[in-house]
Amino acid sequence: MLFPKKVKFRKWQTNRKHPSKLGNATRGTTVAFGSYGLKAETPARVRSNQIEAARKVVSRTISKMGKYWIRIFPDRPFTSKPAEVGMGKGKGDPQGYCVQVLPGRILFEVDGVDEATAREALRKAGTKLPVKTRIVSR
Fold first, then answer.
1. Residue 80 to residue 26: CA distance in whole angstroms
2. Residue 50 domain boundaries
3. pLDDT per residue over 40-65, tens digit each?
4. Domain holding 52: CATH number?
């Protein structure tokens, strides 16, 4: 799973704005490396284990013929409190890392395989992620 080598702060503050009011992505919105890409249609926080599940599916589907790129990296720590713990008494402990994805962001790219295989790989990867996705080409 992906996670940063070193972080400056253990816990981050939550965005005060609702993800739907943050607007659309301005960076990473075009297919840059491959021929086909998986583009986010809705905002969400994607955890590192969800990225890993999608990566495994893409890797298996395109096999050794093609190449794939992961265009997102989970650098944001998320916290949670243990089960059956009351409100208050501070913020929970860090549990893992996630990435804030806004609509328009390219999540994965694929190249070196035919269109049908690329579309199938990206479709399967999209089902593993908590965002609605669209398959785009160059």
1. 30
2. 43-79+96-138
3. 999 999 999 999 999 999 999 998 88
4. 3.90.1170.10
